[in-house]
Fold this sequence. Notes:
The protein has 436 residues and is α+β, with helices and mostly antiparallel strands. The chain has 3 domains: 24-52 and 63-80 and 231-364, no CATH class; 86-224, no CATH class; 376-432, Orthogonal Bundle (Arc Repressor Mutant, subunit A), CATH 1.10.10.60. 49% of the residues lie in helices and 6% in strands. The strands form 2 sheets. Strands 3-2-5-6 form a 4-stranded mixed sheet. The chain has a two-stranded antiparallel sheet with strand order 1-4. Strand 5 (349-352) and strand 6 form a beta hairpin. The N and C termini lie far apart (98 Å). Residues 59-82 have low confidence and may be disordered.
Amino acid sequence: MKFEQQFSQKQSQTQKLAMTQKLQQSIQILQYNTEDLIDYIDNKALENPLLEVIEPSYSSNYSKPRKSSGEEMNYLSQIPDNSISLFEHLIDQVHLNYRDTYLRQLVLYLVEYIDLNGFLKISLKEAAEKTGGSAIQLLDALTLIQQLDPAGVGARNLQECLMLQTERDNSAPHLAYVVLEEMFKELVDRKWEKIAKNFDISLSDVQEIFDYIQNLTPTPGAIYGATEGLFIIPDLTVKIDDQELKVLSNRKSIPEIKFQQNYFERMEKSQDPEVLKYLKDKQQDYEWLKKTVQQRGDTIYRVGKAIVSHQKDFFLDKDRPLKPLTLKDISEELEIHESTVSRAVNGKYLETVFGVFELKSFFSKKIGENSNESSANDAKHLLQQLVEQEDKAKPLSDQKLTELMKDKGIAISRRTVAKYRDALNIAGSSKRKRYD
């Protein structure tokens, strides 16, 4: 059998989306939050002499994201706290309170091993080996640190941290310090009958001690942490006028990009081909950046407006209910890709009179295939209500919560109840029991 191999030429036309560098940058710009975008524009201005950046005059304060449904905003809490670090605070106190002695040198040495939460991260034995100080001297140095502010600083573990805070609080319940010292594990494990019997007190007394300890801080040094990044610039604002919602774009928070026309015209008079090519490239960069930033704002506005339209009840009802909503719903409505919606909502915020919310927080899955109106948010809200209304002496189990929620029209599994309870930081029934 003869084998023949034939060759032929054919021409076919196909469409492909080429991921050019400009397209990749456009996608990245949409993904930037406001602060990242401002940094990006500033960097582009350094690269392009034809680009002038006019910094914005903010029409609203930097705001903290709000998850609660409180109606009043505390604008004082939105002012950044430019306080010193924990290390600087401790060093200042050491120099102010203690004389320049060898013991103070040991104190300063130990301060360097205190982490951002206020805990000592080196053992006294190891510190003694490295400094040449005796065990007694290192213990004295640690004692001096533990007398500084904030209360609890210099602790070597959580138990010691709580004891230090209790020791310096005159309003602490009777026996609170002793219970922490002698029966800390039993208190954590809620073996309260054993504690009550050991100290000859009632369960309500143990409950009082436990409630007090709950109000202490497990990380006393954290309040001295840096505040950068805690405040955000909202991209959108929702105003309510006579039950009508109006979505406004906060584009004034973005630097204005202008073209240096005078500089361009002066340089254009040059007959140097390389200069003219350089000017043309930089002019194109300016036009691309201005257009891309405008498109970013338009996309965020369109997506935000569609979200507000779907979640109208959230803004008008004080219970803040959320309807089931997915990225696909918005993408189909606006005829854009789901990934575009995702980039437009991540790290972008919406400001209201009752708080600031990330756009992606308005998406909520529906519960069950036959449910059109019940969302995961509704289930969490109902779960929280049931726990708040329960008899604290006989807390509801997850199974009982599942049954009660089903009776109220939200059918979810016990496992889902446990998952939502954890998400809401609600303890299990055994840990919610009170002895008041």
